[in-house]
Amino acid sequence: MDRLGFFKKGLSSMMEAAQAVIGLKQAAETFTEAVDDALRDVSPGFGLFLPSVDATMYDSPSGTLYEVGQMGYTKVEAGCYINGTAYNIKAEELLQMAKSSGLKISGLYLNKFYEKESQPHKVEPAEQAEDKTTASEATFLSPAITAWWEKALDSAKAMECHYVTMSQFPEGVSAQTIDDYVQYFNLIGQMAAERGLRFSFHPTKAEYQPRGERSIFEELIERCDKERVWFVLDTFEAHNAGLDICGTIKRYAERIIALHLHDYDIVGESEKIDFNRILSQAAKSKIEDVFIEVRSYPLPPQHCVERSLRNVEILDSVKI
Q1: CA 60, CA 65: separation in Å to the nearest integer?
Q2: Number of independent structural domains in the chain
């Protein structure tokens, strides 16, 4: 029996005993708050990558978040950010919807490709010395890109996120592209840190695959500032690229901000990815933010994400 089932059984017995003494209504009122608090403590605390149910988030955001909370999820990562909103909902409003469903918004996905300025502002030597920044840092981000990130990061802070994540990377990557994005990510990471947030990158199969001696993921994780830039490890993307997932978790544990349990459809049913071993290594490496992601749907999305959670909850690495 998993930890949640064990605890529920014990509470059920206690409720029956209380009913016999003080009646059903009073017993229910007495135990409700204790049950909610206790279940939070024994729950493994899995989160949901909210784009897994994007369609219903647009149709009925509050209803969808309520369903997600009732399934047993405790936190979410939000997506579909546009101009200060997610799912066309203002940050503060989405936060309240999540809280009313017993959910925390841990992260927000933000995607903005780097664009070189056509006519960068020239920084004079005296001005550079006074600012104590390099000329390349001072001219690297255009005012438009800076303003975009400031608004996006402020929105994430208003949602009470702990981190933000970028999940897109250019095609046709060159050595210059890597150089640009190391600097770009470092600067975004600094902007995030100024707001009490962390910045992370979510690689896909393309970034995990070797190109020459090292993959783009390896280049970024080794060259980006470890105090400014973290990474989200996606099990489907990593497995599809032939990556040693457990070895990667062990090697880069301090740089992995979250783990996505992502399968070829419903999590745990393809039998291609060893989620039990992965979660065991994640626990050893003290990676606490674990999210379920579904992108291929043999059933309606809500059924897929609920069944995925149940499949994960019964794993030996999760059970008592």
Answers
A1: 9
A2: 2
